[in-house]
Amino acid sequence: MNAAAIVLAAGAGTRMKSKKPKVAHQVLGKPLVRWVVDAAHGAGIERVVTVVGHMKEQVEPLVAADTTPVEQVERNGTAGAVAVCAQALADFDGSLVVLTGDSPLITPQTIQRLVELRQENDAAVVVLTMELEDPFGYGRIIRDESGQVARIVEQKDANAEEAAVTECNSGFYCFDARALFDALKKVGNNNAQGEFYLTDVLGICREAGRKVMALVTSDPAECLGVNSRQQLAAAGKQLQRRINNAHMANGVTMTDPDQVWIGPDVQIEQDVELLPQVMLWGSTRIGEDSVIGPNTRLTNTQVGRGCVLQETVALDAVIEDGANAGPRAYLRPGAHLCRNAHVGTHVEIKKSTVGEGSKVPHLSYIGDCTIGAGVNIGAGSITCNYDGKHKHPTVIGDGAFIGSDTMMVAPVTIGAGAVIGASSCITKDVAENALAMTRPDQIQIEGWAEKRRKKQEQE
Ligand code: UD1
Ligand code: CA
């Protein structure tokens, strides 16, 4: 799309009461300003300039990779903010979209509509407007007798008649870039707030005989700006609904969509079932027919088809087709469950592969370990991978059987088909198909228990 965009992100956001700049606050794991920049890119706009200012050292890193950050040193109003982009866009002629960095619900489709409408009509500007029952605080759209947009009046500058208008400025526009930068030179600050208002550009263009238009949104929620923590939560709720509805439309079942939180980059295949209290973040992907939840959080985790994950927390893990985990499994970075593997209750897996069909069913810690196929790890078995300074590997061959409560002191290798007697502490390599056991011999003293009971009764 032949258009560029400016994202305004220099404001302080005082009402957030935060150490962080407002636009760095996240919804569904993504900073506010990123939602806006991504919407611009999603509309096909490659060239984006971001106006930074307040705590710019925290905002710039969020946008520097795919936009041109420009600093607004003096925060003297929205017109001032756009004016600082003049140099960065000096060579640009065409449709210039202006977006506020604190409005994460704006969609690529609406941005495209603004651009198309401006280009079709050769307008100086198309502003996105909304009808609100309670317009307080917003700029009002003042139309002339013929219904054309004449200008915008800010709340603080509005007379009673203007304040009664319910059509409001969303703060999203598409301008003719040259008309915009020309008009900005004429914007003054003789108003209630002593600021340079971007909204004055509409009246100026109109007086210059250019066409000024409005696109009335059918979904005012799309224009929701975040100024407070309440609005941050409200925006999160809206985006949650939007994302969940899209997944349900694609064939994903959710028992209770209010209790499912999915990040914008998560991919889910058809016939996946999401139970209550599920969070899916980052680049997580879920394959067909898998059942996830309840109480499960997956971050950057790849889940195959037909998997079942109950009460599982996973980060940077890979779970192949038919594998399952939980209830109460913790899969840390580098955990890799091969096809049909099973990781059960109160089991933690870190940087380890659990081979095809292998089982770690209960109460185990497996770290820096390679487990072959068809292995059974008995309850309570642990890889002792850390000597206080270094981490060491454990290798367990195909078909090995590890008795319950085995300590495997790494580095150590247990050969394929080997059997480890329960309660062993394995410090040396075990050969294939061998039995290894470190358990002391059992002793038995006849009648001892009865004698003790009698003695205790006499005390
Ligand atoms: C603005 C509009 C108002 C509209 C409303 C929609 C103006 C004058 N008014 O009002 O008509 O209804 O948005 O939400 O534009 N910013 C800077 N530098 C500045 C000042 C602001 O970068 O010097 C940024 C802010 O960080 C914010 C955006 O511009 O992202 C809007 O500024 P704000 O002060 O919130 O404008 P509003 O009073 O909400
Ligand atoms: Ca605002």
**Ligand inventory:** uridine-diphosphate-N-acetylglucosamine, calcium ion
The backbone outline, from C-alpha atoms, is elongated
**Average pLDDT taken over every residue:** 97
Compute the number of helices: 9
Uncertain residue segments: none
Biggest sheet, open or closed, and with what strands and sense? 9 strands, parallel
Ends distance:
93 Å
Strand order of the largest sheet: 14-17-20-23-26-29-32-35-38
Structural class: alpha/beta
Strand portion, in percent? 25-35%
Describe the structure.
The chain is an alpha/beta fold. 20% of the residues lie in helices and 30% in strands. It has a 9-stranded parallel β-sheet, with no helix packed on it. A hairpin with a 5-residue loop joins strand 8 and strand 9 (149-153). Helix 6 (177-184) packs across helix 7 (200-207). The longest helix is centred in the middle third of the chain and has 21 residues, at 229-249. The protein is elongated, with a radius of gyration of 31 Å. The termini are far apart. The structure holds uridine-diphosphate-N-acetylglucosamine and calcium ion.
